[in-house]
Fold this protein.
Amino acid sequence: MTDFKNKSVLVLGGSRGIGAAIVRRFAADGAVVTFTWGGSSEAARQLASETGSVAVQIDSADRDAVIAQVRASGPLDVLVVNAGIAVFGDALEQSADEIERLFKINIHAPYYASVEAARQMPEGGRIVVIGSVNGDRMPIAGMASYAVSKSALQGLARGLARDFGPRGITINVVQPGPIDTDANPAEGPMKALMHSFMALKRHGRPEEVAGMVAWLAGPEAGFVTGAMHTIDGAFGA
Ligand code: NDP
């Protein structure tokens, strides 16, 4: 447990999976949490009622709506950008509109949300972006756009750490490997292949990722910025 009592936390993409575990963790640690959701109204409603957090429907592909939500949240102590999608398939056959939407959600939203949050953040403010070990290693075909997007977050953190450092704001990327969520079920068809790359032959749990996020957002991580933090059972090792 970390003490986030009365800290103001915004999680972009919090209705399900890793995002929901992050919302639960900050709420359990005393924070005042707002999270956004895109399509999962019932999951968002239930999570808000379970945790006492506020749920707001914002499509992360809508840059101006994301910026407006961050601005309306006021001075945040912690921003977590979790919303992300994958589009699988042959790069030569994929729809450009679909790939463009992925880049908007996975790259543009984290960038503009981080910049907007930093405008009002107090000294000690924390920004954590959920990347992927696929930013370092992409061992299968059909996920190039996803790999591009998660590598881009590495540049985002390195660059914005320089811009925000003088104001005492940190920005870091958490890079999960396979985590048991709707997007990547532990018992899904890719299980054996993914585990073959790993030293720990299991999917991670969303709560394990939330624990790393909480550490990065907490007082012990004040000297940690512009860095990638991999939690992947050695998928990328
Ligand atoms: P899920 O698909 O289980 O959940 C995704 C979450 O993001 C949901 O809350 C969803 O909300 C939200 N979201 C997605 N698109 C949008 C959008 N356009 N606008 C608003 N919210 C949106 O994914 P995971 O929990 O597995 O993944 C979360 C993050 O972790 C992603 O960035 C992913 O790339 C990353 N990651 C996941 C790994 C895994 O193995 N699971 C491994 C490495 C990285 P809603 O349903 O309401 O639209």
Observations:
- The chain has seven helices and seven strands.
